[in-house]
Design brief:
Shape: globular
CATH architecture of the largest domain: 3-Layer(aba) Sandwich
Helix content: 25-40%
Radius of gyration: 30 Å
Family: Belongs to the alanine racemase family.
CATH superfamily of the largest domain: Mur-like, catalytic domain
Pathway: Amino-acid biosynthesis; D-alanine biosynthesis; D-alanine from L-alanine: step 1/1
Number of domains: 5
CATH class of the largest domain: Alpha Beta
Organism: Taibaiella soli
Strand content: 15-25%
Number of helices: 27
Keywords: ATP-binding, Cell cycle, Cell division, Cell shape, Cell wall biogenesis/degradation, Cytoplasm, Isomerase, Ligase, Nucleotide-binding, Peptidoglycan synthesis, Pyridoxal phosphate
Catalytic activity: L-alanine = D-alanine
Bound molecules: pyridoxal-5'-phosphate
Distance between the termini: 24 Å
């Protein structure tokens, strides 16, 4: 919280318009995510492809009245608003938050390193939130923008701050240090990640060490030789200045003497017991994880707790309860056509706001419900805490609130004060479960958010729709990554049309379309009218092009604002007639030209008739003119591609000339975008690449496969030599074999061509080859070499470690066919960063 006047002064700004001094509570950089507009400051950041200044109007419309800008604004367009003008809005944000930080004298922990920053931060929060009122970075907010937004969350009642810092090039840590000013530092580890900007490892370490310039204590693992050496030199350097260093090192090691000497790691089932010596005393903790990264992260936390003098007994108790940090929120199909956002491990204001934003994005539902347990937010009296929660929920488009737990039960009246919000309360999770059948959930978007002790996973089982064992998991964050990979390849101003035809290449319908709309693509394209109508019904408002509209659906297209691809005179005449009947004018249409693909489209000799038909036609307006490349991915066809492009140029030029206005021109699909940067025209049509499959052969390192197809082991059998497996005895057993039957078959879209040893699946990250033929609903795999495999285990059919391109090669087809062939009975589950 800071007065606007103070922000203006501290950011070295001037008032472009000043109306009233307001206490700012929230900083906003995205006009779609606003909690309390009246007390928010909108910071217009300027990024290469996204200029915050162009969202000022939208933030103003939502009620925001305070703006930090770096460009002249016509402030008379925004009556009643304050505008602070600075040279650089990002620098200004960093400046005033650094000043803000100075007001707090509580201990602050700063975390950097190549891996584990977010997990260590979240775990420290889990471990310490019983003992301290904590402010921490939301999600992985560790960048030049994320750090000031995190530190801003410090409030007077806090007793501890935990913030992470990440850098990608030299010079960046200086800024972050000034803002975080950590007292206690944690250097998690050093790896090769993000080393592009650095000359070598040492330079990278030294840059990161800048974060601890003013720290009193620094925790790190002295088993990393490079890190250890750099640290020794760093201390030496400080000592060189003559004074004793203020910075004390707190080391841990599995190999040699250290402050915390790790003496033994023992794996017991799914847990690890970690034994160590600290100040001459033998200590131990047990964590519910076995992987090396979790062990390393836990030891860093252990050191921190020892430094903070948390009693060993409390440390042990909390360590046993550590739980996985959900980096992303999972969207599942709920009962009665509901959507369920499952966030059942965390319950504090920071994570609640993230989840509420995500709930609000579920525009496919008109009704939204929040189910919340009592919160673990110490430091704030219940009254103030729940008043804030009630307001945050009432302010959003949320219709129903279900509060569970004694504290919420007592705070009923705070929620009931908001008349439009229906609220129901239960004293315990058990009571809620008993009465669950009385609460109706129907086409609802449900956020389930509870502290761990409330055991909401029991509720989530009841609210989740039962799923067939085989699921296709769609990672929407990966899709956003892929979108950005392509966006950086097209010039600013070139529009992006995203192809969501064929059920988004098999990935789902409105979930994908909605994520793309939210990400700001310019156009969507479907194959058929009904696909477009389904998107409109789900609340998609972007322009939608329909590639194969049949004339019988023209009336519905117009009613639902869907734009037809017009590829011959007949469809143009029929569409014009319908537009006339429905009395619409200048309805957007898209003219398809045939430049060599010879599928759909006007040929050169048909252009004169097209001109005649379009001239004086007041019912339609050509929104775009396009053509499709036959071999954009194939270097052997580049000459043909150039011929197509030349034909496209000449045909579209004469069309534009005739029209007297300029429609958008577009030619490139995914591979075309990557391989033919000179052919982007006004818009590109992005399909396959969006789903993380590289058809171009030049992008594979950057794209992330969006889909993971998983199933489970239904049964395991031990077979003797001489026996056979499956239909027609095609699977031969020549040595003692362990065979797993898995729940996927050709009816799910798993091609028969993959049988008899052609393909493998992954079980416990290890390959298991197919034995015998693929059946309709099942197939059999060899798990002789995977003794840990057991019934019920997860099987990866394809995913990042077993790419679709590999499967499609095995099946002698292309990824497009594999993806769109996954049958509709396979449930789609969506994951996303909150
Ligand atoms: C499907 C399609 C695309 C997208 O192609 P990708 O190779 O998947 O990127 C582009 N344009 C048209 C006309 C299409 O039919």
């Amino acid at each position: 919280m800071l007065a606007a006047q103070q922000i203006c002064a501290w950011s070295q700004g001037t008032w472009m318009a000043f109306h009233a001094d307001i206490v700012i509570e929230e900083l906003i950089i995205d006009s779609r995510k606003i909690n309390e507009p009246e007390t928010a400051l909108f910071i217009a950041l300027k990024a290469p492809r996204r200029d915050g200044h162009s969202f000022i109007a939208s933030a103003y419309d939502k009620g925001v009245r305070n703006f930090l800008v770096q460009e002249e604004i016509n402030t008379s367009d925004y009556p009643g608003a304050n505008f602070i003008l600075v040279k650089d809005t990002l620098k200004a944000l960093q400046l005033f938050v650094a000043q803000y930080r100075k007001q707090f004298s509580i201990p602050v922990i700063g975390i950097t390193g190549s891996n584990g920053k977010t997990v260590v931060k979240e775990w420290l929060f889990q471990l310490l939130s019983n003992s301290f009122s904590i402010a921490r970075s939301p999600k992985s907010y560790n960048s030049q923008i994320g750090v000031p937004l995190s530190v801003w969350l410090l409030e007077p009642e806090n007793e501890l701050g935990i913030f992470e810092a990440g850098i990608s090039q030299p010079g960046e840590m200086e800024n972050l240090e000034r803002i975080i000013k950590p007292d206690i530092g944690i250097f998690t580890n050093i790896g090769e990640a993000h080393s592009e900007g650095f000359m070598n490892l040492r330079q990278k370490i030294n840059e990161k060490l800048i974060l601890f310039r003013n720290a009193k204590q620094l925790i790190y693992c002295s088993d990393h030789p490079e890190l250890n050496e750099a640290m020794a030199q760093y201390i030496h350097q400080i000592k060189g200045n003559g004074s004793e260093p203020d910075l004390q090192l707190f080391t841990w090691s599995q190999k040699h003497e250290a402050d915390l000497r790790i003496t033994r790691l023992e794996q017991i089932d799914s847990k690890t017991k970690i034994e160590g010596q600290y100040q001459g005393v033998d200590l131990a903790i047990t964590i519910p994880f076995t992987d090396p990264a979790s062990v390393e992260n836990a030891i860093h936390c252990w050191c921190t707790l020892l430094l903070l003098k948390v009693p060993q007994q409390e440390i042990e108790k909390q360590m046993e309860q550590l739980h996985t940090v959900a980096m992303r929120l999972e969207l599942r199909h709920g009962i009665n056509d509901s959507t369920l956002i499952n966030d059942t491990y965390n319950s504090d204001l920071t994570s609640l706001y993230i989840a509420l934003d995500y709930l609000e994005q579920q525009k496919q539902h008109n009704h939204r419900t929040v189910i919340l347990s009592d919160m673990l937010q110490i430091g704030k009296p219940d009254m103030l805490l729940y008043e804030e929660v009630a307001e945050a929920i009432a302010r959003r488009n949320i219709q129903r609130f279900i509060g569970i737990g004694p504290a919420l039960y007592k705070s009923k009246s705070l929620f009931r004060a908001h008349k439009k919000l229906r609220s129901i309360f239960f004293k315990s999770t058990e009571e809620f479960i008993k009465k669950l059948h009385l609460v109706d959930f129907d086409k609802d978007a449900i956020l389930l958010k509870g502290a761990r002790s409330f055991r909401f996973e029991k509720v989530s089982i009841l609210l989740e729709q039962e799923v067939h064992q085989t699921v296709l998991s769609i990672d929407l964050s990966a899709m956003m990554n892929n979108l950005n990979v392509f966006r950086t390849r097209v010039a600013p101003g070139v529009k992006v049309m995203a192809m969501v035809k064929a059920f988004s290449y098999g990935s789902g319908s409105y979930e994908v379309a909605y994520a793309l709309q939210y990400a700001g693509v310019d156009y969507l394209t479907v194959a058929y009218t009904d696909e477009g109508i389904a998107l409109r019904k789900a609340g998609i408002s972007l322009p939608i092009m329909v590639m194969s509209p049949d004339s019988g659906s023209f009336d519905r297209m117009i009613a639902w604002k869907l734009e037809p691809e017009i590829f011959n005179l007949r469809s143009l005449e029929l569409f014009t007639r319908m537009a006339q009947t429905m009395q619409v004018k200048e309805y957007p249409i898209h003219i398809k030209l045939d430049t060599g693909m010879h599928r759909l489209g006007f040929m050169v000799h048909e252009l004169p008739d097209l001109f005649t038909e379009l001239a004086q036609n007041e019912h339609v307006k050509v929104a775009s003119v396009f053509s499709h490349l036959a071999g954009s991915e194939d270097a052997g066809l580049d000459e043909f591609t150039r011929q197509q492009a030349a034909a496209f140029r000449s045909m579209s030029d004469s069309l534009t000339l005739q029209l007297g206005y300029k429609p958008y021109l577009h030619l490139c699909n995914s591979a075309g975008i990557a391989r033919h940067p000179e052919l982007h025209f006004d818009m590109v049509r992005l399909g396959l690449g969006l789903y993380g499959v590289d058809g171009s052969g030049v992008l594979h390192d950057e794209l992330i496969q969006v889909g993971t197809l998983k199933t489970t082991i239904a049964q395991i059998k031990e077979l003797d030599p001489g026996e056979t497996v499956g239909y027609n005895r095609r699977g031969k057993v020549d040595h003692p074999m362990r065979i797993a039957t898995i729940s996927i078959g050709y009816a799910d879209g798993y091609p028969r061509a993959l049988g008899n040893g052609t393909a493998h699946v992954l079980i416990h990250d290890k390959p298991a080859k197919l034995v015998g033929v693929v059946c309709m609903d099942m197939c059999m795999v060899d798990v002789t070499g995977i003794p840990e495999a057991k019934e019920g285990d997860e099987v990866i059919v394809f995913g990042r470690e077993l790419p679709l391109t590999q499967l499609s090669q095995w099946a002698d087809t292309i990824p497009y066919e594999m993806m769109t062939g996954i049958s509709q009975r396979v449930k789609r589950v969506y994951v996303n960063e909150g």
